[in-house]
Here is the input.
Amino acid sequence: MLSFAFDFRYRNNIMKVKEIELQSERNRKRLMEIVFKAKAAHIGGDLSCLNVLTVLYFDIMNLNPSDPKDPARDRFIMSKGHCVEALYVTLESKGFISPDVTNTLGKFGSILSGHPTIKVSGIEANTGALGHGLSIGVGIALAGKMNKLPYKTFVLMGDGEQGEGSVYEAAMAANQYRLDNLVAIIDRNGLQISGPTEEIMAIEDICQRWSAMGWDVKDANGDNVEDLLGAFNSIDYANHCPHLLISHTTKGKGVSYMEGVPSWHHGIPDTEQYEQAILEISERIVNLEKQIRI
Here is the structure.
């Protein structure tokens, strides 16, 4: 009986991983579609953080698209706001915004801008000036503690963003107020607009730095959905420490010719490149759909 129960749970876990992987690939394909039409984006970082967004919105966070202002909802702050296109497709797939709205990206009069805006359902704060998101997240998490509300606050930062001094002021405040309802994530893809982070402004050892500031720090392979799920689900929200997840990713993840190439920080594919990307992603989607049906 125990063996059967374990096997059942194991199979359910595998299916959950596959379903989130499939959703991430569908979001990746949709991302390529809207970016190609809009002719503007920060595609490399969009692709590297897409798994994190999909895991958060489809498994970890407590959210209801039909009640986007529920006081008990979990909050998400996109501090690396230049990668908002990844957030738009995630919000669309979760039901916060319609495809008709997402299709207006890059068009005159659209409510969608190149950085997050609260005009869009599901977006909590206007962001884009790097270094501000964690400060906003600290305030939201502290308000939750003061108002005795059960929500958690998640903040996604870039690794190039770690050169901003305000990040560390916010980090110290989070420790001071014991904000164990706050989770910061660093999209550690190793590249920023000017080149490798360790050449522009070295940030290692990230783990030691944040641990010294009183944070509970975890590492995860951000290119791997199962690893991300394990890392998020292992967080202890009662340990009186703010939490940091270092998500090790590949810039341009999922499109072969973009992966690890700095120029794709904000490059736009031409027609041939777009078609190649769609083909690669579509093949993975078909493969995952087959695995789920088996």
